[in-house]
Write a structure and sequence with these properties.
Enzyme class (chains A, B): transferase
Catalytic activity (chains A, B): uridine(1498) in 16S rRNA + S-adenosyl-L-methionine = N(3)-methyluridine(1498) in 16S rRNA + S-adenosyl-L-homocysteine + H(+)
Main location (chains A, B): cytoplasm
Helix content of chain A: 25-40%
Number of domains of chain A: 2
Order of helices and strands of chain A: EEHEEEEHEHEEHEEHEH
CATH architecture of the largest domain in chain A: 3-Layer(aba) Sandwich
Oligomer: homodimer
Structural class of chain A: alpha/beta
Organism (chains A, B): Roseovarius faecimaris
Radius of gyration of chain A: 20 Å
Largest interface: A-B, 33 and 33 residues
Number of helices of chain A: 6
Distance between the termini of chain A: 36 Å
Strand content of chain A: 15-25%
Family (chains A, B): Belongs to the RNA methyltransferase RsmE family.
């Protein structure tokens, strides 16, 4: 049997003997770029049914057909962690979405804050980044990228039991140690990490966050971190303390 | 007195009343881009003398003069941590250097590994990224970017007392927890973090690293991380356990 090296996300049911037709883009990637041929194998996942080995049955320029063969990994399910962040620049926004998928966020929520100018996002493009990161990182789960929302509306609809790790650059500097907010947090609860925008939160936002019983302020060291760095650092801290890096 | 918002790295002594001439690039940035005028204030650091408030004495298109006024922060010195990594793609290499400066590495060491193709780096360009990150993150220290070296030569010259946190994607997957290598590590020792290249270490490299008494293998969660993600995650873990995030 051919060894499968390529991992591909498909929006199609997966199971033993299941036929999986390819889109034009997928066929171009597999047969044009990666030079696969009939009889070669790939690994497939759809975000729900684990990872499956599949053989190439038909390889064409504009399409093709795979047949799933055997399950190679059960479905992964990362911890119930949302990453909430304020998109600013395109490259760093792309980066944050990629990193959220690699680090095991279950949902990615872009928000508009008082000091954020982003009026819109390309949700489909960000979702494609999340898919590519999932293909790369060996997982079988793809976090969903939510529509852009106003932070105040998002907090108004906050699910009561979800805990919130709140990283604010105003907490950087000074000499205080980590707040220890995570150590005292309930285990097994759903969580979200909120990364402040590079311009910081407004006073109104800061007051509102500080008043939420679910909020746990965490300080990310003595230096001011860019939002993309803060996202990876905060997810590392959370995964180590409460998630699947324990 | 004018409020200083801009932070600028200068290669010049700093002290009370010290005159600081500007390069053409610095003058362009301060007066052309940021529209500063005589009498405005900036914050200066040179990596050794802390942060100083300075006034603009002369503002020209091709140069200018600042005068340091008072020290606003003492010199920072991050923990004695080296970040050692194998550069591959330009954008991700730039990113790793930026993140190393933000996360508080003291020295940045690019290495060639058996599976790394990078034949050369632009050391001056990478150093400029480290300076820009230091200007941004509010610190007064700039890590030095070392010349590219072969990993085997680098390990042959390894300073005996320096501990090595060794992150290998071959350790990803499976179900084992974090190795706990950091918990048992000597405190107060100099350290380095070595990030595996995206193609992984060769067997020879892995064997050599495993045989070093200073090496502490650490697993970065169940997903495979890109090298840039791994660099930020590993520095977060180290800073929390042994560095200045404690």
């Amino acid at each position: 049997m051919a060894v499968a090296k390529i991992r591909l996300y498909v929006e199609h049911p997966l199971g033993e003997g299941q036929s999986v037709p390819l889109t034009r883009e997928q066929a171009h990637y597999l047969f044009g770029v990666m030079r696969l041929r009939a009889g070669d194998a790939v690994l497939l996942f759809n975000g729900q049914a684990g990872e499956w080995r599949a053989d190439v049955v038909e390889a064409g320029k504009r399409g093709g057909l795979l047949r799933a063969d055997e399950q190679t990994r059960p479905q992964d399910m990362p911890p119930d962690l949302w990453l909430v962040f304020a998109p600013i620049k395109k490259a760093r926004t792309d980066f944050i979405v990629e990193k959220a998928a690699e680090m095991g966020a279950r949902r990615i929520c872009p928000v508009q804050t008082d000091f954020t100018n982003a009026e819109r996002i390309r949700r489909d493009r960000l979702q494609a980044h999340a898919i590519e990161a999932a293909e790369q990182c060996g997982g079988s789960f793809v976090p969903e990228v939510a529509e852009l929302q106003r932070l105040d509306a998002f907090l108004s609809a906050w699910p009561g039991e979800r805990q919130l790790m709140f990283c604010d650059e105003a907490l950087a500097g000074g000499s205080s140690a980590l707040s220890g907010g995570l150590a005292s947090a309930p285990t097994g609860a759903p969580w979200a990490i909120l990364i402040g925008p590079e311009g910081g939160f407004s006073e109104a936002e800061r007051t509102r966050l500080a008043g939420m019983p679910q909020a746990h302020a965490v300080r990310l060291g003595p230096r001011i971190l860019r939002a993309d760095t803060a996202a990876v650092a905060a997810m590392t801290m959370w995964q180590q303390a409460l998630g699947d890096w324990r």
